[in-house]
Amino acid sequence: MIRVVLVINILLLLFVGCSDEQKEPKPDVKDILKPKIPPKISVPIGEALYIQNGCSACHGTNGDGNGTKVLNPKPGNLQDVSQYKMGSSVKNIAKSIAKGIPDSQMVGYPQISQKERIAIAKHIKKMQRK
Known about the structure:
Blueprint: H1 2-17, H2 29-33, H3 45-52, H4 55-59, H5 90-99, H6 114-127
Helix pairs in contact: 3-6, 5-6
């Protein structure tokens, strides 16, 4: 009888000791007190303002004129400098943002500061195909 109990105990110990279940490691106290901060995502200010002010809704995120708004006529393709009615320089683009473009659906955005309009214009300038 003692042998049977001894064999059963040994088998139970082997069964429990050899299980596949892994215990989760305990977190290090340093990780709890000072968690790792993910790296910052850096978006150029002109690009951020272009999206924030709704330019991408009409002109598309890459400036091709395929934004989420369905307009007729289609918005200008900012990549194609031949479509610029008021000039394709940073100064002229900033002026177009402020005053709008006559005989088009592009309205003026005078509430956007001059500094921000310049940043948006520089971003648009980068979209232009050479």
